[in-house]
Amino acid sequence: MLSLTWLIPMYPLVGSIICGFYGLKIGKDKVAKVACGSVILSFLTTLLVLGGYANLPEGESIYEQVMFTWIAAGNLNIEWGYQIDGLSLVMLMVVSGVGSLIHIYAVGYMYEEYSFYRFFAYFNLFVFAMLILVMGNNFLMMFIGWEGVGCCSYFLIGYYFDKKSACDAGTKAFVVNRVGDFAFLLAVMYIFKLFGSIDFSHVMEHAATTVVFESEDITIITMLLFIGATGKSAQIPLYTWLPDAMEGPTPVSALIHAATMVTAGVYMVVRCNALFVMAPITMWIVALVGGGTALFAATIGTAQYDIKRVLAYSTVSQIGYMFLACGVGAFTAAIFHLVTHAFFKACLFLGSGSVIHGVHGEQDMRKMGGLKKYMPKTYWTFVISTAAIAGIVPLSGFFSKDEILYHSLMDGNIMFWGMGVCGAFITAFYMSRLVIMTFHGKYNVDPEVHPHESPAIMTNVLIVLAILAAIGGLLGIPIMHGAHFLKHVLAPVLEFDLATAIDHSTHVLHEQGRHAPHWGHLLEHHEEHNVLTEVLLMGFSLCVALAGIATAYLFYIKFPSWPEKIMQTQGGFELVRNKYYVDEVYDATFVKPTVEGSYILWRQADAKGIDGTVNGVAKIIGWFSQQARVFQSGFVRNYALFMVMGFIFFLIVAF
Amino acid sequence: MAPLSHYLVLSGILFTIGVMGVLVRRNAIVVFMSIEIMLNAVNISLIAFDRYLGQHDGQIFSFMVMAVAAAEVSVGLAIVIAMFRNKPTINLDEFNLMKW
Amino acid sequence: MFLTFLTFLPLAGAFALVFIPRENEKTIKQTALGVALADFLLSLSLYGEFDTTTAKMQFEYSTPWIESWGINYHVGLDGISLLLFILTTFLTAFSILASWEVKKYLKEYMIAMLALGTGMLGVFIAMDFFLFYVFWEFQLIPMYLIIGVWGGPRRIYAAVKFFLYTAVGSLLMLVAIIWIYFIIFEQTGTRTTDILYITEHLNVNLSTQKWLFMAFFLAFAIKVPMFPFHTWLPDAHVEAPTAGSIILAGVLLKMGTYGFLRFNLPLFPHACNDLLPYIGWLSVIGIIYGALVAMVQEDLKKLVAYSSVSHLGFVMLGIFAFNEYGLQGALLQNLNHGVSTSALFLLVGMIYDRRHTRLISEFGGLSKPMPKYAICFMIIALSSIGLPGMNGFVGEFLVLIGMFQTDAMLATFATSGVILAACYILWMFQRVMFLECKNPKNENLKDMDLRETVLIVPMIILVFWIGIFPRTFTKTFDASVAHLASKVNPDNFRPGGHKKDEHGGHSEHAELPQEIVQIVQSKK
């Protein structure tokens, strides 16, 4: 079954081509069938491949399928190849599974659009790129997907291309992503220089024996990779594009800007875990940025009124948690949270889409309220997902977030844990605020709009996702030994022999006659799961989540005047509501100077400087010619006189 | 027989007369005739050398010069006529269009 | 002989056109296109017969021309020139089809186009300095006429600027050629201008190498054009007719980079290595500067012209990486630029034909009336900014990875070009294609017609073909590039570096421990 691997990305690609070229001819229903069918086929094929993978002989944990040589020059040999292992299978399931659900939902959501076909052409293309991203067996294959998803995201954010804000958001997303891609590319080049190959299997296998632990090289490489990840996954300092990306249709936000694309950075870091482990400094920064983003974005989320923007900041914040997990070395927890987040955040986004659909395109929560009775299915699925993200037992978010918090305390330090807990509190708060402002409280909808429940095709998807969000925690049951399914699946990918790496590094440094730091303590295994601590922490974070919900209840149901008061008295609120003015700062420090500087370059350096120099030379020559012109009187006999004088001159010189 | 130097002096005098004529006269026809004098001055020296050296290259060259002179006359007179058509004069001081 | 036939076929076609009465516009166009197409199709057979395993010249032909000076009519192709040759025949046919709507002096136009074809092809096959120089100057004249006669309002200024810039450079090259001629005569006692012979036997000290290098450098750098010799390019592009721009960007600029690969690197490898920092930084400045200036252009063609400056910076960087990755990348990027930028000029030409303006501010919202056009434009634009899976990426990546081995700092700065490229292309695309269609003149624009579609489709196929199966093309480079890389390998010129070269120099990606030793050493 594994030989079918190459088919997985092909279906959406073919689907995209059919939708794009023949979409208008074959009509909306067929487009819908082709688009959804292709992703579902991918999902089914993934299941088959999963079956094949389960039957791999003992000891083998990677299946590679090479299609052809892509780029070759000198020693560089990059193949168009796919890699199937635990990690890529988990990602494949998420991408094709959640992707199928969102495709089905989008049929209902987008049905009124004229450019229905265009939407699905892009949407399928996105799935293709995302699948390539998670299946590629080398860094450059991953980069195809990496840029491909960015490109599709650009198309889809700018789907309503006659809206200036949508176009700007698309361009912004692409350019900010490119900043990350720039770093990613540099990292790939650096890796090639050190390892002589950019195949994942080669690099990860030889990481321990090629680079020196904690050395500059590996720190630079991992930092570059991480900068790449911050671009794609919207972390500080490159997160600003994601909230703006909400200009795209809601299914886009759900699939691309919540469930799959934005988590690509996390996937990449986990994929390169062997490199990151070699660079503790980078790990610390990853954790710090992750934790910082989790907290920072959550605070912005408390003060937004656009329903999708709240969710966008929530996404930024949740991905921060994943990076926090990566940073403290809990890669399994990061992937676990990635999966559960895909479920509940997709459900939340689609739910918000259902709300927006129901109130005819309104996105401002102040103009909603009391919608519970109009759209019960949306409401209940939304509540389940909110509980999941807030971390209420026994929903999926509880398990994954707890695992992260546990590791950030045990493997990290109290600061990281503190960031995580504060973030969790704020998350619970703003998500409850969202639910309350939208579904409870006073009915504020425009009188001309009659809210209604969305069609079945949409609500059914919501129900499936809500179920997944509820039970997703089963993938990683804590405490019970051996019940953590994900840990088992990811073990081969995360296998890393730190002892060899340290031995090797010490050896190399000694050979250089340099002092090798004492790394021995890194090898001391801390005890197996401390069950008591874990249970205590769980209880604590549950309390924190409940406290967050209770605060929201107090603020928005019990004493609705409180928010107003705070807004008036606290100066800080203005800062938060304006997103800490980060966009404005970036605009003033990067965008404006670049554009204005370019004008100066063009008008001054190019037109005046370079062309001026050239024209100046020409003018000087012209001036000399002007002077010499006197001799050109036009009288033939003058010329003859000059000839005679010249002749006489030469006679004199000769004799 | 007169020595070579006599011929060369004659030729030099004629050539100088021709040069001065070209330089100082204003009438195009006269300038033209001065050029002819210069050519013939050269012819004289060619023939003189031919005789003196006992070879016949000089004669051949003087024929060559005559042929070129004939061609030149036809072109030159045509130019003079064209000039006269443009302006009712052949005073060379009136013609200074050949500049810049 | 086949090569000679292919090269002079367009000129013969031009000669035949002389006898067609000027009223028969259709016949003239068809004849011109037929000749160019035949030339292209025949040249494809070169690819089939090309032997990719050797760095030697192929399809060689040599016969004495001016014997007393030792000048031969010597032509041939190797891996470096093969694809440029085919690209030229392709673009000649392409640009003739692209100029179907020319009205003014049609016959002369087609004659100029075909003559230009011969001149360009000659440059790529000439294996004799004298012959090379003749072709090099010959192609200037039809191009000068094409800009100067069929160009825009400031065509005379642009044409003269184009001519003067190129002529100044090539005169210095002529001096260098004559100098080399005498050096070779002194050293070997042979009077010859044969490029292969000279490449093998030229042996001059470093300072002479540098002087000669500079003379060639100026000629080629102006042609490429490298910063700061680029200002003729935007003017020439803006004023040239669409087909002129296509040829200019697609082929004429490649002559500069070809010159570097054919002359500067193999003849003066030591000087190249010594001057690498200067040229490297000039290229990087070109990449960034071109991109920044492109971003603020108001005229579409100028934008594309400045983006050419940026792209050619990558090519130069690849050449001066002195290793196989960089050289292959440079050659492929040459090809990519020929495809993407030509197609961009074609697309800009299409809306120019409809609206008779190229100002970005005049457009907006074109995707509504012209959806097919918008898709094609998008694909080509993305290929131009190097999206993986399309052609631009493969070349750029090879160039960058090659440069990274030689000088990581240069590569880092050059890589920042990918960010800026996205800025200028996407911003332009947004202002032209997206937003509301505010200008009523744009509301009823016709979408692409059949001829235009026929033109653009092969370009789009090439974009993806090169992006996904670049080996089809790069395999022709392998042998020649390996040969060249061994010649200019920086290790040859480092004190004590010769020994390493015996082990294969760069090609050994030493087993890992050694590698680490080196890295650690280099850090000390």
Helices and strands, with pairings:
The complex is a heterotrimer of chains A (655), B (100) and C (524).
Chain A: H1 7-54, E1 63-73, E2 76-84, H2 86-109, H3 116-135, H4 139-157, H5 164-195, H6 200-210, H7 216-232, H8 241-244, H9 250-259, H10 264-271, H11 273-277, H12 280-301, H13 307-327, H14 331-358, H15 376-390, H16 396-412, H17 414-439, H18 456-471, H19 485-494, H20 498-511, H21 520-523, H22 531-558, H23 561-569, H24 571-577, H25 582-628, H26 636-654
Antiparallel strand pairs in A: 1-2
Chain B: H1 4-24, H2 28-53, H3 57-86
Helix pairs in contact in B: 1-2, 2-3
Chain C: H1 2-18, H2 25-49, E1 58-66, E2 71-77, H3 79-98, H4 106-125, H5 129-138, H6 140-150, H7 155-188, H8 195-201, H9 206-223, H10 232-239, H11 242-267, H12 269-295, H13 300-319, H14 324-355, H15 371-384, H16 391-406, H17 408-415, H18 417-433, H19 450-468, H20 471-474, H21 478-488, H22 498-502, H23 512-523
Antiparallel strand pairs in C: 1-2
Sheet having the most strands of chain B: none
Provide the CATH top-level class of chain B.
Answer: Mainly Alpha
What is the CATH T-level topology of chain B? Helix Hairpins
Low-confidence stretches of chain A: none
Question: Structural class per helix/strand content of chain A?
Answer: mainly alpha
End-to-end separation of chain B: 53 Å
Percent of residues in helices of chain A comes to over 70%
Describe this structure in words.
Chain A has helices spanning 7-54, 86-109, 116-135, 139-157, 164-195, 200-210, 216-232, 241-244, 250-259, 264-271, 273-277, 280-301, 307-327, 331-358, 376-390, 396-412, 414-439, 456-471, 485-494, 498-511, 520-523, 531-558, 561-569, 571-577, 582-628, 636-654, and strands spanning 63-73, 76-84. Chain A is mainly α. In chain A, α12 (280-301) runs antiparallel to α13 (307-327) and α13 (307-327) packs antiparallel against α17. The longest helix of chain A has 48 residues, at 7-54. Chain A is globular and about 115 Å long. Chain A starts with 6 loop residues before the first helix and ends with a helix. Chain B is mostly helical and 100 residues long. Chain B has a single domain, classed as Helix Hairpins. Helices cover 77% and strands 0% of the residues of chain B. Chain B has helices at residues 4-24, 28-53, 57-86. In chain B, α1 runs antiparallel to α2 (28-53) and α2 runs antiparallel to α3. Chain C is 73% helix and 3% strand. The radius of gyration of chain C is 23 Å and the shape is globular. Chain C has 23 helices and 2 strands. Mean pLDDT of chain C is 87; it is low at 497-513. In chain C, strands 1-2 form a two-stranded antiparallel ribbon. Chains in contact: A-B, A-C. At the A-C interface, β1, α4, α5, α6 and α20 of A face α12, α14, α16, α17 and α18 of C.
